[in-house]
Amino acid sequence: MTEVKFGIMFPTPTQPLDEVFKHSRLAEKNGFESIWIADHLIMVRPGFVPDAWSVLSAISMITKDMMLGTCVSDPHRKHPAVFAQILATIDRISDGRVALGMGPGESMNVEAFGIDFHRPVSKMTESIEVIRRLLREKKVNHKGDFFELKDAFLQVKPVGDVPVYIGSNSPKTRRLTGRIGDGWMPFLETPDTYVEHLKDVEEGGKEVGRSLDEIDTSLLLSTAISEDKKEAFDSVNPYRVNYATMPGKVKKAYPDVDFPEFSHDLLSSSNAGSLTGLARFAASIPKDAVYDFNVVGTEEECMKQIERYIRSGLRHFVIINRGPDPVKTFEIYGKKIIPYFKE
C-alpha cells in the first residue's frame, strides 16, 4: 500500500493558544506527521485570529518531527522576499520541517485593508517562483508582472528544500498544481469528487513530464468519532456553514439540490449581512454533506470513509479534530486508525 500520512489543522478563528499547543503535542504523541494553521488576517466569523507563522514558530519549539505549514497563505499580504525570509528562518528553528501552503487568496483578507487583489492566480504563481529562487539561489534577478528583483539575495537559507502545497479548488489551479506543486491541498471533496478533480492535477503534471507520484495528494477535512453517531454528527454539523464558501463544489457534489443565489461578496467582510447570507446558503446544503465531505461517525464508519478516500488517490489526511472529545479522538487515531493504515 502507498504510504498514507495524517496531519492536523487549526482553523480560523482558532482555539486559545494554550489549547493549540496542547493539541500539537497530543497530535505528535499519537503519530500525526504534520501541523497546519489557517493563514487569515480576518475571518467572516468573530473570534481569535493570530498570525499563522508566529504560531507555527512557537509550535516548532514544542514538537520534534512534525511538518509545519499553512493551509493556506496568499501572495498579497507579503512580498515574496519577506515571505522567503520567514520560511527560511522558521525552517532553521524547526530543523527543516517547514512547508508552504499557498493559494490565490480571499477578498476577506485584503479588501478592507486596501491590499491589491489583482490577478490572484498569476500573482500566486509568480510569488511561488520568486520564493523558491530566493530560497535556493545565491543571487536572484527577476522581472515579472508583479515583482522585480535585482541582484537580490537572502542571508538565511532553509535547512533543505521547502515543499509548496497549493490550495487549488478550480480546474485552472489544479492543473497549475500538477505543473509546479509539491503537494495538492484542496478543501471540500467527497471521495467521488476527489478522484475526478485529481485528474486535473494529473493532466497538469503531464504537461511538464511529471507524474502523480511526485505530488503529495492531501485534503483538508473534519473528523469526529463517537460510538453515538448523532454525537459525532452534532460535533461537525455547526461548521456546515463553511461549505458555503465554496458554492461551486457544493453544487458539484449535489447537482439535484436547488440552492439559493450566492454572491462572493458574502465572503468579503464579517458584517451581519454576510453572515446571514452564508447561513441561508448553508441551510440548503444536505445534512449528508457532514458525512460525505468528512470523516465522521463511529470508529468503524470513519475507517471505511478513510479507505474510500485512499481508493480515490488521497495520501495525506489533514484533519480538523472536532471531537466530541478531542483528546479521545487523538487517542483513537494514535492507537487504532493510524497504525492500521500504516501496516
Structure notes:
By secondary structure, the protein is an alpha/beta fold. The chain has a single domain, classed as Luciferase-like domain (TIM Barrel, Alpha-Beta Barrel). Helices cover 41% and strands 15% of the residues. The protein has 12 helices and 11 strands. Strands 1, 2, 3, 4, 7, 8, 9, 10 and 11 form a 9-stranded parallel β-sheet that branches. Helix 5 crosses helix 6. The longest helix has 17 residues.
CATH architecture label: Alpha-Beta Barrel
Q: Give the beta-strand count.
A: 11
Provide the CATH superfamily: Luciferase-like domain
Quick one: CATH class? Alpha Beta
Secondary structure category: alpha/beta
- Find the CATH topology: TIM Barrel
Q: Write down the overall geometry.
A: globular
N-C termini distance:
8 Å
**What proportion of the residues form beta strands (DSSP E)?**
5-15%
Q: What percent of the residues sit in helical stretches (DSSP H or I)?
A: 40-55%
Order of helices and strands: EHEHEHEHEEEHEHEHHHHEHEH
Major sheet description: 9 strands, parallel
Structural Rg: 19 Å
Total number of distinct structural domains: 1
What count of helical segments does DSSP give? 12
Please state the average pLDDT score.
Answer: 93
Oligomerization state of this entry?
single chain
Low-confidence region ranges: none
